[in-house]
Write a structure and sequence with these properties.
Oligomer: heterodimer
Strand content of chain A: 35-45%
Structural class of chain A: alpha/beta
CATH topology of chain A: Immunoglobulin-like
Number of domains of chain B: 2
CATH class of the largest domain in chain B: Mainly Alpha
Helix content of chain A: 10-25%
Number of strands of chain A: 8
Shape of chain A: globular
Largest interface: A-B, 51 and 53 residues
Shape of chain B: globular
Structural class of chain B: mainly alpha
Order of helices and strands of chain B: HHEEHHHHHHHHHEEHH
Bound molecules: copper (II) ion
CATH class of chain A: Mainly Beta
Helix content of chain B: 25-40%
Number of domains of chain A: 1
Number of helices of chain B: 13
Number of strands of chain B: 4
CATH architecture of the largest domain in chain B: Orthogonal Bundle
Number of helices of chain A: 1
Largest sheet of chain A: 5 strands, mixed
Chain lengths: 106, 368
């Protein structure tokens, strides 16, 4: 019992430290992603900020890392955590010129 | 990260909590992932970003964003040459590119109708209706994706589509090459414009694309106003310009000097056509979404929309004021606007200022 409690505290502390480290940010002003390529560890969140004047719809169809944020309104922030190592193409469905890549490593 | 400094402590705190939560899930899933491959990326809770800068709304600042570009962009792998463009123009206006010898590109993209055809739905080689309205090709040089649903990446790729399509010009490409090669005038024009490949698929594509890139909307009263001539457009149109950029949100999609973002939106029209959704069936916002048309030469190419369902500019403005069908796919930028009657007629006056001086497009003499 005690062992489990210690283990929980240890994990929680670890998590807090992890959370305090800022995640990587992608901004979308002017209908462009602020980065063309980012590298992340699997499980590390990537934060998408819509600091533009129009809604965006970020998504990926890359195998194992599919997601669709739907319409993200101006002034909104959403984290996406990629779990599968590999190359992920991230696009905006509304604005086809918005494209970026995420390299997810083990 | 200076933007975070602008948040209240409470916001900061909840952000931290959320991050913890997300990381907790992330860790759990990482552990799980070792035993079982996961299907998707994880999406966290959406929260607000406080340091958002509001877009410029002063009229003078807005006007700066509508200046016409000085040069036409041509791609590096198909640069402009006068000979290519001249050949492309002949091909564009030549009905012999269709199997029946009656349809040219200009049948459906005609200078007489602002480079559209003035029909609600295009009519093909066998007088059959196509699925959608013929869009204008004016200012196509600045386009980054083509067709109402974006299925074509560039003008070179586009050119053969209508020629070979059974419902459009219905002309098998081999038969076209034979036909063009049998016309001495074309043989020499191809040889001069494309010494390396002569009469060929490659040359037809490049010539048609090059000619289309030279079709640029005429200098409009609106352009004169942007350049500083206050007398160029009526007061209603100036007020309409402000409504267009502010209350009516039109410029969120019809952006810049050519009035398009080259992007895809569902504006709430009742048509059953899924548009872009055909290629992105899982993305809700792409169902019923179509490419934003530019608004240059807009008065000469009614009726409007991908299905030609709205016949006047006043009715277009009524549609936007009403917001159309409220469904999940409809753009967040579309919805009841609460425009006054004066604002509506100002918007129409503004749209009318976007048509250029009458251009006397000279139809070329065709080779024999
Ligand atoms: Cu976007």
């Amino acid at each position: 019992m005690r062992l489990i409690a210690y283990a929980t505290i240890a994990v929680a502390a670890g998590l807090l430290c992890g959370a305090a480290a800022p995640s990587k940010m992608i901004y979308q002003k002017g209908r462009t992603f602020s980065e063309k390529l980012v590298q992340l560890k699997a499980g590390e969140p990537l934060t998408f900020v819509n600091n533009d004047s129009v809604p965006h719809n970020i998504y990926s169809l890359s195998d194992g890392n599919e997601f669709d944020l739907g319409s993200q309104k101006p002034g909104m922030i959403t984290d996406v955590t990629f779990m599968q190592p590999g190359d992920v193409d991230v696009l905006c469905a509304i604005h086809p010129r918005m494209k970026m890549s995420v390299k997810v490593v083990d | 990260m200076h933007w975070r400094g602008q948040r209240s402590f409470a916001v900061e705190n909840s952000w931290l909590l959320q991050s913890c939560f997300v990381s907790l899930i992330a860790v759990l899933f990482t552990v799980l992932a070792e035993t079982k491959a996961l299907a998707e990326a994880l999406v966290g809770e959406t929260r607000t970003y406080d340091a958002l800068s509001r877009p410029e709304t002063g009229t003078e600042a807005l006007k700066q964003t509508y200046k016409r570009p000085g040069l036409i962009p041509f791609p590096a792998d198909n640069p402009y040459t006068p000979k290519k463009a001249a050949l492309g123009k002949k091909l564009y206006f030549d009905p012999r590119l269709s199997s029946s010898g009656t349809q040219s590109c200009a049948s459906c993209h005609s200078p007489a109708f602002g480079w559209g055809d003035g029909l609600s739905i295009a009519v093909g080689d066998k007088m059959e209706k196509l699925a959608r309205r013929s869009p204008t090709i004016v200012n196509a040089a600045w386009g980054s994706i083509f067709m109402w649903d974006g299925r074509v990446p560039d003008l070179e790729e586009q050119a053969l589509g209508p020629i070979m399509s059974a419902s459009e010009m219905n002309m098998p490409i081999d038969a076209l090459l034979v036909r063009l090669s049998s016309i001495p005038g074309y043989r020499s024009l191809f040889a001069e414009a494309f010494p390396e490949y002569g009469v060929s698929v490659q040359a037809i594509k490049q010539a048609l694309a090059t000619y289309q890139r030279t079709i640029v909307s005429g200098w409009a009263p609106f352009d004169a106003w942007i350049e500083g001539d206050e007398m160029a457009i009526p007061e209603e149109a100036k007020r309409g310009f402000v409504v267009f950029n502010t209350k009516a949100k039109c410029s969120s999609c019809h952006a810049g000097w050519n009035f398009t973002d080259d992007s895809f939106h569902d504006i709430g029209l009742p048509s059953p056509d899924m548009g872009r959704g055909k290629f992105l069936p899982t993305i809700v916002k792409m169902q019923h979404a179509f490419k934003t048309p530019g608004l240059r030469e807009i008065t000469s190419r009614a009726p409007y929309m991908h299905d030609g369902s709205i016949d006047t500019l006043s009715k277009v403005v009524e549609h936007y004021d009403d917001g159309g069908i409220n469904r999940e796919s409809r753009s967040d930028l579309i919805g009841p606007l609460g425009l006054t009657e004066a604002e509506k007629s100002d918007l129409v006056a503004f749209l009318k200022s976007l048509s250029g001086e009458e251009t006397t497009a000279i139809v070329p003499e065709l080779p024999r």
